[in-house]
Structures are given as C-alpha cells and as structure tokens.
Amino acid sequence: MSRRAVGAPLSRVDGRLKVTGRATYAAEHDVKGVVYAVIVDSGIGRGRITGIDARDALARSGVLKVISHLNAPKLAYRPNAGSNNPEGSERLHVFQDDRVRFFGQPVAVVVATTLEAAQHAARLVEVRYAAEKPTTGLAGDRTNKPVTYARGDAEQALGSAEVRMEMTYRTARNHHNAMEPHATIARWNGHRLTVWDKTQWVNGTQEELAAVFGIPKESVCVISPFVGGAFGSGLRAWPHVTIAALAARETGRPVKLVLARRQQYFGTGYRPAYVYKVRLGSARQGRLIAMTHDIRAETSSYEDFQEGVLPTGQMLYSMPNVAQTYERVPLDVNTPLYMRGPGHATTSYIVESAMDELAHELGLDPIELRRRNEPDDDPATRRPFSTRRLRECYTVGAREFGWDRRNPKPRSTRDGDWLIGMGMAAGVYDTNRGAAQARVRLDARGSAVVEAASSDMGPGTYTSMTQVAADALGLDMRAVTCRLGDSIMPPTPPHGGSMTMASVGSAVQDGCDKLRRQAVALAVGDERSPLHGVDAGDVVAGDGRLHVKGDPTRGETYQQLLARNNRTHLETLGSFTPGESRFSMYAYNATFAEVAVDHRLGLVRIRRMLGVYDAGRIISPKLADSQAIGGMVGGIGAALLEHTVTDPRDGRIVNANLADYLVPVNADVPSLRAIYLDGDDREADPIGVKGLGEVVFTGVAPAIANAVFHATGRRVRELPITAEALL
Amino acid sequence: MSSELPDSCVPAEAEPASTVSRRTFIATATTAVVAGDLVSAETAGAEAAGAAEAPLSGRVSLTVNGERHAAMIDNRTSLLDLLRERFGLTGTKKGCDAGACGACTVLVGGRRVNACLTLAVRLEGAEVTTIEGLAPGEGDELHPLQEAFVEQDAFQCGYCTPGQIMSGIGCIREGHAGSPAEIREWMSGNICRCGCYVKIVRAVEQAARRT
Ligand code: FES
Ligand code: FES
C-alpha cells in the first residue's frame, strides 16, 4: 500500500520558489517594454472636478501621457452582475465624469517610462475642485432598503422574559492590508488584452474587464499564479485594474500599475464599520428565549454592499424568537468588500460577546450557557446539520486550555501589574461551494499536470490539490504538478469564502478519478496488459502503477500502459457542481484566549490562545495549522489594533499607512495552538471538507474581548479594544 | 544627512545637473493640489511634450549577490526599485515603500536594511545581498534559514518571506536569536499579514542552532 498524501503533514510544493524569491507576484512578471502608471487620487471627499492642469507633469522628461475624464475615451461599462459586483451596482466608472464620490477616488493617471518619473509627475498634476462636505459617519437617517428576518414574536417574548439585556456594539472599519500591494500589468495585442493581476478570481476579473471595455470575454486573459495575501481584497476588479488597461491602450505600451500602500485604503475595499444593537431575553436557568439584532453598516453612495451578517444570529443558538434588521448607510466612501470571515466575523463577535454578558449576568459558566442553548438542528431552516460538533470543540478546548483553572469572578487573577483573564467564544462560517472544473493530464512518463483557474493567495492550494491528485492517481507527490491562476485554465469560483478546497478540490478529485478509470479501462481491455480481463472495479492505483487490489505484483506502470498503446497522454476534465442539499452546512470553532491587561496603562497583551475546529476533513494538516495560527493573528489585530480612521471633515483616511494602521507584529504574538477535530463531511462535498480560511478567524476577536472582560471586569463594547477604553 | 552614508558615495561635484530639485525629490506624498487657476480641458491630458526618456542623472556601481553592476540611474531611485525594476531581482518585495513593513529587507555590507528607504545612488561600492543570493542555482542547497522556513511552514502567501529570511539572517548574525522572546522582539520590523509569526520564530531558532 502506498503512502497517502492527503492527511500527511507535508511541506508546501511551492516552498522552494517562495523562499528563494522566485515566486512571481503580479508586478513581477517580466513584460517587455513596460512603462509605469501612477494614479492621481482625489483630494476631496465629495464634489466636482472643475479643472485639471497637467502641463507641468507633461513637461517632465519620461512622461508619456496624463489621462483623466477630460480626455479618456468613453468606456462600454456593460452591466456585469458577476465578478462580485454588488447587486444592482452602478460601479465606479473611471474617468467618465467629473464627479468625486469619495476621498482618494482616481481622478487621473500619469504614464511615464520610469516609475520615478511617473511618481513625480503624478504630484505635479494640479486638480481643481468644487468641494462639498462628505458624509462618512454611520449616524445618518438615510439607509438602503433593510433586509429583515423574523421567527416567532421577539418583542412579545422579550416582554415576558425573566432576564432581559440590551447592548450596542461597535466595530471599526478594517482593511485587508495584504503584504503584496494590489498591482496590475496590462498589455494589448490588437483587440486582445492580457493582464497580470493580483486577484482572487481570474475569471471574475476577466469578465469585468470584458464588460468595461465592451469586448468578448475570450479576448481577455488574466494571469495570477501567485498572490501575496489578499483576505478578500482581490475578490473584485477595482478601478486601478481598468486604469492599467486603459493606460496601456491609450499609450500603446504595456503598463505596470502598483497601488501605493496609501492607495489600498481607498482604492480597494474593506470590512465595513458596524453599529449593532442586540436585545436578548433568557430564562434564569440559561435558556435563550429571544434575540433582536439591529444592524447598521457602511456602504458607498454608488453601490449597496451586503454581506452575510444574518446567519449567525439565526442558527448559532436554539431559541424560538428572533428578529433582525440589516441596514446599510450609503456614504461618501468607496465600496466595502468581503474581508476574512465576512459577516460571521462581525456577528460572531457580537453574539458571542452578548452570550458572555448573559453568562455573567446569570452566574453561569460561559461554556455551560452555550451547551444549554446548543440546537439539535438548524433553528432557522429546521434542516439537520451535516455535521456540527461544537460540543466536542468545547470539551476538547476546555481540557487542553485548562479552563477549569479559571476563577469565574472577573478581575480576580493578578500577576504583578497585570490583570489576567481567560475568555472563550464560539465561531461559525458557512460551508460554501461553487461550480468548478479542473483539467488533468497524465503523460507517457507517468507524470501528471493538474490545472485550474483558481488562485492560491496563501492557504496552500498548490499543495493541497497536488495531494488530492497524487492519491487519486496513485502517484508520488513529485510526479504531480499543479498549475493555477490563469483564465485560460478551467474555471473555478472565487478563491474566497473558504470554498476553494471543497469546490476545486472536488473537481480535481473528479478529474483524477475519471483519468484513473480511463487508464484502467485501457489496461483491462488490452490483451498485452497484465491487467487484461480483470474487473475494472478490482484495479487500484498506487506507487505510479495500476494493479489488482490486494496483489501489487499483478499490474503495470502508467508508462508501460501508455507506451504500449502509443498514447502520448491521457486527459480529462473534472468537474464539481454543488447540488441542492437537505442539510445545513457550517464549520465551527471554539476559541480560547488568555490575556494580561496592565491595570495602570490599559495595555492588553495576548498570553496564549487555542482554537479547536470542526472543519471536516483536513487535507493538508501542516498548512491547516498555519491557516489557523494566521487566523488567530488576524483576529488579534481585529480585537486589539485595527481601525481605519476617517476624518469626517473631508473623508480622508488619516492612517493610510502601515505605521499608523496597526497590525500585529511578531512581538504581539506569543503561543498559539490549533486543534482540528478529526472529521469528514461527505454531505458537504465529495472530499469531505468544510473550509478553513474563515472559520479560523471568526471566534478570535470575541474570545479576546471576553478575556479582557474577565481580566478587568470592564466590558468594552467596541472593537478594537484600546488602552484608552480600558483606562 | 544620515550617518549611514557610505564613504564612497558619489561626490557632490560628480552629480550631474538634474531637472529634479532636492525639494521635489523629498516632497511628501500629496498627490493632488488645488490649483489657483481654472484650466481648460484642452490643455489637460495632452500628449507629453517632454523628452521620451526619464533622465538618468546619477551613476552607481555596486555588488549585488557577488556580481558587479555599474548603472546610470535616476537619483530618485531607491535600492528597492533598482533591484526590482532595473535588475529584475524581484525577490526583494515592496510592501509599503516607507520603512514600515520590512518586506524589502536586504543585507548591505552584511547589515539588514530596508531597501525602500535606501537611495541607490548612495551605495557606491556597497555589497548587497538579496534573497536571490542565498541559493542562486535551481538545484543549489538552500541556506539553513530558507530550509527552516520550508520545514516549519513559516509562510503562507510568501510575500513577506524574502524580507523575513534576510532579516532573520541579520537577527542571527547580530546575536539576537538567543530565545523566542528575543527573536520576537528583533523580528518585529517584519510584518507578516498571513500571521506566520509563531513559525517564523521557530524557523529562526532552528537556523540559529544550526549556524
Ligand atoms: S517596503 Fe520597505 S519597509 Fe515596507
Ligand atoms: S506569508 Fe503572507 S505576509 Fe507573510
């Protein structure tokens, strides 16, 4: 029996490329004759452009062109309901009119032969505005049509509940801030456009560019083999992608456009800020009766961005009465977008903080309160859960973290100047799947290539797909090459929402199964094969060979089979289409945190954390462990550091840089540990996975917030929790 | 001027006249200014009247990964852009271009520096080592820290990784890899947004033991 790759703690197949600096990210493709574009961003938050003087910029040597609404051609901007454009979205039409909708909106682009010349000239473009006062706060009355949900009668139930609580929580705007800046290289060849882009969805970017330029999708090629992190920011083709392509067309040269770090803060999306009011009613012994959720979030004036903020409140706990209202406030800002754990990350923080507050109010252990409200089926849909092992997550987590050492009384544990607290929270994320395809090709040397359009922004898609393919074909990992990130490859869903493994992985599995069956059929029908006449169902693959099950000596290698039959290769197209399911499918976590809070300075330090996950089958344990630890680090940022600050006077982002927008650094991160429950969810998809990238993030911030309360006895109902709030 | 100026930096008189003044050179990142005059549409956005090529006003010769380079450069060019845009050495990454993330960390004369904050023209005679210099050939043995990064899975997207590795080499050489706490402190100039810190520390520890 050959060793199995799936489930083995293997190192990344692209590890060598990444540690030697040879992995090629968007701005690093060597495109001959490339020139440089730098965007000029609006210096006002709302209003009109009344004039642009580009003379000084154009007089500089090396400057080729300045493009703005004054001289840009009219672009097609065909409607495009795909590409993660918000429903009914108007989209920002770049350089098509004189309106400024938010601070930092692109108003012109400078193209020059060198980066230095383009950067300098961009500063010399003088833009004159008729400025108006922008609206950037969530307090206003105007909202887009609310989305609502109700079951039972929450108002009535609240009225008669033994325990009633009401809390308002606030969460800050967060930016993805992946280390790789967004970047695009665009090149036209007649009417054909090629872009090397930082994207989480080459197919989505391809469609959007086709729509914007009014050309067939087939005329656009999007290439993105390596993505330096994205966390959601690469799920749409932002205006700069269009600008790069436009600049290339207008200058007749390939154009490279890299957003400056500062420009990521208004040139790409963000997790919107929320104001979230919860009212809950419970019986004294800890059974939830009702909960209401009044949710307000930012969106832009030109697009109604929505994310999945409703499910957590509907399905995490069993209760008969729920009422939800989700409003988006249109503001003079750019449009938000999904960021790691979209929806649930925000709502898990709120629901799990509220549960902690209730546990304290009732004098119950927080885990015990959760156990008492654990549903047996999905309370929103009444469907059975495909798998839901939160109880086990609590048990394992409590044991491994030493929860029994926690003194239930807040502010009861000290270590010198430090107040010590332990907190926990549950987290959840949808098991998403999308239609995907993958091409598998096995050549006469017995090597296989697996191809799919999907990106790999860091989770290790190259590696996990190679593992799935190696096992399905019975090949060594080294005999399989995975290729990703090109729109000419078979289409895949967005590389986000934790759906890549389930979707693309299942397509790879299907393609490899088909290919193996093709090879087996060839062998059993071939008189010269040692497998001739054997029932196809009795032939298995392993160690690069096909052989009779239980008798490895009777068989042959792929090479022998293909050579004898004069076949240069075998090729199949695998596919996965998620069907209707009668199950409710989610991945779960229980996350534990121990914090220390300086009682005089209000400084919060993480001491240790543990995450326990019910995420289905784990294809690549070594990489899954990194995902979980990375999710905890991201959650530490959201809980304690991250906050995009807008100046209400002009809509400027005041901390649009990595020195002022704080993210966790090495010194902020001590011991973090992840445990995956051994699982396999075949209702979710053929390979049994439930998705990892989001669920490892969703319980982190509330666990920390609850630990801070336990340490200090102070409940801060706002993220990030800052020293000021604790003083 | 900083005391880090190399001794052999281009002498003032050798600096050719440039169309770029010192003032614009260090201008802050204000991108759009409100002009006094309303300008008509015709004057804006025309084709460039200036020379086709940007001026290369400085000269520098330096060693990168053991290889001598002599180049005419724009005085505004950072070492980072010189490596990435002129020499095609894209292993060194640009994360912030402002000294806040460490993605651009390289060794200059054996010391770790942020290449984005280092003007190329000041590096006359300098010896620069980038990630590409550690295991130059396809089949070359990896540097112990590169190997440790792969073994410990100390990265995900890999974008911060070259900077982490160069910084880690510096950290070990400086004698700041004595304990996990010390490594955490001395590696905190390198942001990893994928959050691989726990494993970066293990990788540096592992390599420190082996070197
Ligand atoms: S790019 Fe140099 S420190 Fe960020
Ligand atoms: S590995 Fe992605 S930023 Fe460090």
The main β sheet of chain B shows up as: 5 strands, mixed
- Poorly predicted spans of chain B: 1-45
Distance between the termini of chain A: 63 Å
Q: Strand percentage of chain A, roughly?
A: 25-35%
Determine and state the CATH class of the largest domain in chain A: Alpha Beta
Looking across the biggest beta sheet of chain B, what order are the strands in?
Answer: 2-1-5-3-4
Structural class of chain B: alpha+beta
Using the alpha-carbon principal axes, give the shape of chain A: globular
Shape of chain B: elongated
Rg over CA atoms of chain B: 20 Å
Model regions low in confidence, pLDDT < 50 over at least 5 residues of chain A: none
CATH architecture of the largest domain in chain B: Roll
Distance between the termini of chain B: 36 Å
Q: What's the SSE pattern of chain B?
A: HEEHEEEHHHH
Distinct helical segment count of chain A? 18
Q: What's the domain count of chain A?
A: 3
Number of separate structural domains of chain B: 2
Topology at a glance:
The complex is a heterodimer of chains A (727) and B (211).
Chain A: H1 15-19, E1 35-41, E2 47-53, H2 55-59, E3 63-68, E4 99-100, E5 106-112, H3 115-124, E6 126-131, E7 147-151, H4 154-160, E8 163-171, E9 183-189, E10 192-197, H5 202-213, E11 220-223, H6 239-251, E12 255-258, H7 261-267, E13 274-282, E14 288-300, H8 311-315, E15 321-331, H9 344-362, H10 366-372, H11 390-401, E16 413-415, E17 418-430, E18 436-443, E19 448-452, H12 461-473, E20 480-484, H13 500-524, E21 539-542, E22 545-548, E23 551-557, H14 558-564, E24 569-576, E25 586-598, E26 604-614, H15 621-640, E27 671-676, H16 695-698, H17 700-712, E28 718-719, H18 723-726
Parallel strand pairs in A: 1-12, 8-28, 10-11, 14-15, 19-20, 26-27
Antiparallel strand pairs in A: 1-5, 2-4, 2-6, 3-5, 7-15, 8-13, 9-10, 9-12, 13-14, 16-17, 17-25, 18-19, 18-24, 21-22, 22-23, 25-26
Helix pairs in contact in A: 9-17, 12-13, 15-17
Chain B: H1 22-25, E1 58-64, E2 67-73, H2 79-86, E3 105-108, E4 111-114, E5 127-129, H3 144-152, H4 161-173, H5 180-186, H6 197-210
Parallel strand pairs in B: 1-5
Antiparallel strand pairs in B: 1-2, 3-4, 3-5
Helix pairs in contact in B: 3-6, 4-6
Bound molecules: FE2/S2 (inorganic) cluster (2 copies).
